[in-house]
Each structure stands twice: as C-alpha cells, then as structure tokens.
Amino acid sequence: MGAVAARYTSAVILVTGAAGFIGSNLVERLVREGEEVFGLDAYTDFYDPSMKRRNAAAIAHLKGFRMVEGDILDPAALDECLGKAKASAVVHLAARPGVRQSLANPLETDRANVEGTLRVLEACLRHGVGRLVFASSSSVYGGCEKVPFAEDDPLGPMRSPYAITKRAGEILCRQFFDTRGLPCACLRFFTVYGQRQRPDLALHKFARLIAARKPIPIYGDGSSERDYTYIDDILDGVVAACRVPVSYEILNLGSHRAVAVRDFLSLLERQMGIPAIRLHEPDHPEDAVRTFADVAKSKRVLGYEPKMPLEEGVRRFLDWFAREGRP
Question: How many CB atoms are closer than 10 A to CB 33?
C-alpha cells in the first residue's frame, strides 16, 4: 500500500462548511473514528439555510465536536476558531458552489472561492496548521476530451467561473506549499450524491420533481455522462487525505464509472416506481459532455477504492429522501 501504511491520527481537525452536504457527513465520520473536530459555517443563502441548520442540529450532539458560526472571509472568525481548535489539519469545504449560479454571480463566486481560500491558507500559516485538504472539483477538467480524466492531463477550456475559481484554489495551494511549506492535498470531487445532498444537485432535484409529478429539464438528448460518486466513497478519500503524509498533491475522488444522464434518470424512475416527465431543452454551453475519474493515483497515494454500486447508492439516497429530503 506504500504511503497508506504511514497513517497517523490528527489531534484536531477543523472543517469549513461543516453544516453543508459533504461537511456534515464528514464531521460524523471523523468523530466516529475518534477525531476531535471543530466545524465552521456561515449558513449562507445559496440554498435554504434552514437545511444547513438542520444538518448542524443533527451533528451538534456528537462527542468531540464543536460548531462555530463564522465566515471564512472574516479573518477574525478564522483566528477565533483556529485559536480555540489548535487544529493540526484543516479540511476546506466552504465555497460558493454551482456551475449555473457562478454564471449569474461570478463576483460572489470569485470572492467566496478565491479570496476565501486565500484567507484560509493565510490563517493556516498564522496558527501553525500542519496540512490543508482543499475541496476542488471535476469541473476544472472543462472540455477535456481524453477519458478517464487523470490529474496530469492537460485541462480543457473551463466552462464556468466556478471551475476557474476551483483551479485558482489549487494554484494558491501550490504556491503556499512551494513558498511557505504548507502541505496541501487538493481533491477533485466528481458529482457527489447521497444523504443531505444539496437540493440543486441532480439526484435531489430529479427525485423531488418526480415525486411532485413535475417536468424534469433534460439538456440536450441526455447522453452527457457523469461520474456519480457516493458520499461514503468521497469521505474515504477525504479522511485518508487527513492522515496520509503528503506534500502537494492533486487527487481525483470519483467512482471511475461514467453514466449517461438519461440512464441515471431511468434508474431513479425504476427505484421510485414513478415515471419521470422529461422536458428536453437545448444543451447548455457550460455543461461538460462527460466527467470520468481516473482514480489510479488516489489509489496509490491514499489507498482510495470506491466501493458503492450506483444502484445501491441511489437506493440509500431515496431512503433518506423519504424520511427527510422532501421540501
């Protein structure tokens, strides 16, 4: 297993964006595995803040966890949180997400994702943090035509301000490692789904519209492909990145399986037992034709091995959706 054998346990881990979809699930995993965790979240209004408040309430009782309300754009909030936490590692998930919204609000996206990441990096140096794990995105591959996407492939033209901000975050992490010696693992997430998923993401949106018997917009003919990755597989990679010694690495976290959107929707129809009403619309120029992760490097560096079959992952999501995910 190479580097995977050299694991260690962090003293304290700070998770930014801890009340979000990935963040709240990550906090649960880390605490369950014996880590002490601080969470930081600003409960911004990109989507209904009450959903994030509900996530925060679900993890508030966890022994060894403390949530702090604050914004990564506020140096005082970062200093207060890191001063209390004395964290040895920071997992930076807080961001202004979404390809579509970044086209409508590019300045807000840039400020949250570029300035916000820079402020987190600077705070890590001020407080002696030993490593940063940065949440990047498969969107940085843009119009890359070679599949599957490998970390050292030339990047295609990026199709949204969001993608550009995530690539900028990776470059900032590189600069802080090269000039300041801060170890950074930049994890490129591929279409994450699962319990507590944001309502704007495909699976949650599709399930909600199917349940309401409302039309689902399908852009183009539905042949575009996505590498749908279950939350637990993503968490395996994030936790490993907190523990395996790294210097500066870019690493894909995906399922290593590309599925056409129309096939994904058909699977959802079968599992829900309700036919979807498809509303075909023109292609969006910012949408990638496909995403498909080559995970060989992540396997070598982190011991990463995606395990969840898509069919089972969707079933687990629908169990959560039936209990808690409906509006």
Answer: 11
| CATH number for position 128 | 3.40.50.720
List, for residues 208-246, the tens digit of each pLDDT value. 999 999 999 998 888 999 999 999 999 999 999 999 999
**Does a structural domain hold residue 109?**
yes
Q: Give the separation between CA 49 and CA 60, rounded to whole angstroms.
A: 16
With both helix axes pointing from N to C terminus, report the angle between 261-272 and 310-320 in degrees, rounded to the nearest 10: 50
> Are the C-beta atoms of residues 16 and 24 closer than 8 Å to each other?
no
The sign of the dihedral angle between the CA atoms of 102, 184, 242, 117 is: negative
* Active-site choice (8, 47, 141, 162): 162
Helices assigned H by DSSP within the chain: 21-32, 49-59, 75-85, 99-104, 106-110, 116-126, 161-180, 202-211, 231-243, 261-272, 296-302, 310-320
Whether 101 is covered by a domain: the verdict is yes
Say how many residues make up the chain: 327
Does the residue 322 lie in any domain?
A: no
46-86 pLDDT, tens per residue?
Answer: 888 999 999 999 999 999 999 999 999 999 999 999 999 99
Task: Give 4 or 184, the one with higher predicted confidence.
Answer: 184
Number of domains in the chain: 1
Q: What is the mean pLDDT of residues 317-321?
A: 96
| DSSP 8-state class, residue 155 | P
246 occurs within a structural domain? yes
Closest CA to 34 of 7, 9, 60: 9
Give residues with Cβ within 8 angstroms of 201, minimum separation 6.
21, 192, 193
Using the 8-state DSSP alphabet, how is residue 226 labeled? E
- What distances in angstroms separate CA 197 from CA 147, 204, 260, one per listed residue? 27, 7, 20
How far is it, in rounded angstroms, from Cα 274 to Cα 283?
Answer: 26
Range of the domain at 59: 2-190+230-256+293-306
Mark whether 8 is an active-site residue. no
